[in-house]
Amino acid sequence: MDQPPRIGRYSLVRRVGAGGFATVWLARDEQLDAEVAVKILSDNWIEDDDVRRRFLAEGRFLRKVDSLYVVGVHDIGEADDGRPFMVLTYADGGTLADRIKAGPLEFAEVVRVITQVGRGLKHLHARGVLHRDVKPANVLFRSDPSGDRAMLSDLGLGKALAEVSRITMPGGTPAYVAPEQVMGERLDHRADLYSLGAVAYAAFTGQAPHGVASLGAVMQIEAPPPSMTTLREDVPDAIDVVVRRALEPDRDKRWPDLDSFLNALREAHNTGEVPHALVPAAAMPTPATAVPVDQATALAAASTPTPTSGEQTVATPAKRSGRSRWIAVLAAVVLAAGGGYGGYEYVLSRPVKVGTGPLSVEVPRSWEQKAVDANKSMVVSTNTAAWQGNSSTEGVFVGIQDGQTLPKTATPPPDCDPASVDPPQTTEVSEVSFRFSCKGPSVLERYKLMDGKVLRVQVRDDNATTREDVAKSAKYTP
């Protein structure tokens, strides 16, 4: 069937990709005068109801997440010949697979890309979706003023967590799929974590781990792949150990979550040291909950204990705390009571309230580290040690300021553009907000008049809803 010159209001420019079930076209939205990607079901599948359902399910999954690091769906419809189509964010920078084929990538570039893809996965998981097909060909790049941005695409194998809690049919790309997914076992976020580790391995070395070509061969994998240094001699040992732990066939031996993996990868790259969290997850110590905050800069940095003789000098990335273990126990109770994975997902997605003295804030449960200063300020983050120096670290600063006057301007944080200011909604202004566009996660800074004090809240996160929810929840209660 010949492709028409347009679909709806979208004028087709050229074909940019094709797979087994669909074709992707660069198109122009004539009403908005913008370039978009139009993905349309291949004509030979038009009568297959199951394939149509899967195609439309991908659009629904993509719509569940509002993330800079996941390709967005802007429209969905049906062509004149009855084929469904969806309109996606156009990625003009090609794929990670293209870049890997072109030659070795710089280590810093790999860490940046894997961090961005990991954020996209976190946002999918937070909305109750597993990707199940993370691979270099599904990592796209979109140009923006700061360079380019990696985005996850193609959720054709995506599944709701409530569905993958049951036994599912095998699927995925052999070189990048987790063994438990091939075996049809009940899945969780660690299946996508394994695939992300496999993508990292390929990006660092130019070759996929194990080199398997069939799903059956994946079932025979019994150990992590060979050291990356056997393929690229200059790969630092610390990075090699971090990535290979993500590729443990036994998911209980992998990093417990995406934050742990991403924090360890960045730490290994920045310091060259093997992160402390490489000890088995069950043996990870709970991080300290009270360390000084640098009040002068209004951003906190956790102090690092002085090592004793024979210990490694390392920063402590986010780990599972006692609270997380309690959540796991509660989840087991929910499951035992017949709540199913839906109940487990609900427990994990609920925010947790964190406080010190008169200050409190509700944050995502992955923000497990807290730094405080004399009950006057605190930082809650994925990694308080990196909060001040690394603008990609997600978290929130909450602090009390002297005076009773709301500021009219705000100084941009590092790597951020000047702020846009929310206009007052009433003549009696009790708060003011400044929104910063940054190279890393965007920043929302809000000042509130509360009980004769000015409460300053600065939230750093990719997701606009998360930023707003966290800022709104911050309170000062003397």
Write up this protein.
By secondary structure, the chain is an alpha+beta fold. The chain folds into three domains: 6-88, Phosphorylase Kinase, domain 1, CATH 3.30.200.20; 96-283, Transferase(Phosphotransferase), domain 1 (Orthogonal Bundle), CATH 1.10.510.10; 322-476, Protein Transport Mog1p, Chain A (3-Layer(aba) Sandwich), CATH 3.40.1000. The protein contains 13 helices and 20 strands. The protein has a seven-stranded antiparallel beta sheet, with helices on one face. β1 and β2 form a beta hairpin. 45% of the residues are buried. Mean pLDDT is 76; it is low at 156-170 and 279-349.
- Radius of gyration in whole Å, from Cα? 23 Å
The coarse silhouette is globular
Number of strands: 20
Strand percentage lies at 15-25%
The structural class is: alpha+beta
The number of helical runs is: 13
> Helix proportion of residues, in percent?
25-40%
CATH homology-level superfamily of the largest domain: Transferase(Phosphotransferase) domain 1
